[in-house]
């Protein structure tokens, strides 16, 4: 494959106020430089859009730097090396790296990971075999300190992380797994994936729906949503219950301060643990995670879903739709 003289990229045109709109993004054509010593040029095949990216669009201090206006966005991508100035990474190899949102990327060779595209689809390394999968595994095992016999509640359970959390819990000996999702089709899919109970959070107060699904309470809550889901979980958690605070997608586009869980005082008497979680601190679990997940995928006991959009032009709307819950499983953009 020839290296083109130019490529296309998506930049942040302006910072969203509330929900992102297409006007917050801009598609640009830019010159593509040759790789300097120690660099490679990657033709991206598939890129990820993820909820955490919404936080990076705000100009606030966080665990990762914010995106800069008039600069390209970034995120995980998989593609083929089309030019290399490194002895360690060769033309033709398929690599995972962090410069998505563009059709070609110039990347330090030390910042790419060669993946085996014959063992799994390329997009799997953005999802079930990548940071998404590790987030599910480490969040459940390390942050929530899962134990066989636990009853587990997962919010946003039809999403990329949530759908894996529920399955991993069942495969690891959970007594029961309950999931919430935003449509009848997603609820049906959770049941197909082995969730014992699932409910559509639009059908009533989450607290009531969770009580009906788990009348004896829950031991673990994996939080992808925050808000009313977290409040409902605190109400249903048993003494010594554990919460993995992984995401709060219900609040990412809020322009007003969210109401804190009104029942937070229950955490005192119940001796609850609410554990914030970032996957970057748990990379040491990757070998353990891979060993288990590869086996589960091989025997068909772990399944993963994707929602695929086509073309770089579609990436902004794919991201907006992700925040609105239009995806089942991992949202990716094929370039």
Describe the structure.
The chain is of the alpha/beta class. It folds into 2 domains: about 150 residues, Medium-chain alcohol dehydrogenases, catalytic domain (Quinone Oxidoreductase, Chain A, domain 1); about 150 residues, Rossmann fold, CATH 3.40.50.720. Helices cover about 25% and strands about 25% of the residues. The protein has 9 helices and 15 strands. Strands 3, 4, 5, 6, 7, 14 and 15 form a 7-stranded mixed sheet that branches. Strands 10-9-8-11-12-13 form a 6-stranded parallel sheet, with helices on both faces. Helix 7 links the parallel strand 12 and strand 13. Helix 2 crosses helix 3. The longest helix is centred in the middle third of the chain and has 13 residues. The radius of gyration is 20 Å and the shape is globular. The model has no long low-confidence stretch (mean pLDDT about 95).
- Structural domains: how many: 2
Low-confidence stretches: none
What coarse outline follows from CA principal-axis ratios?
globular
H/E series = EEEHEEEEHEHEHEHEHEHEHEHE
Radius of gyration from the alpha-carbon trace, in angstroms: 20 Å
Give the tally of β-strands: 15
Structural class: alpha/beta
Average pLDDT confidence is 96
Q: What name is given to the CATH topology of the largest domain?
A: Quinone Oxidoreductase, Chain A, domain 1
Q: What is the level 1 CATH name of the largest domain? A: Alpha Beta
Termini separation comes to 15 Å
| Proportion of residues in helical segments | 10-25%
Can you tell me the CATH superfamily of the largest domain?
Answer: Medium-chain alcohol dehydrogenases, catalytic domain
Please give the CATH architecture of the largest domain: Alpha-Beta Complex
How large a portion of the residues is in β-strands, by DSSP E? Answer: 25-35%
Give the biggest beta sheet. Answer: 7 strands, mixed
The number of helices is 9
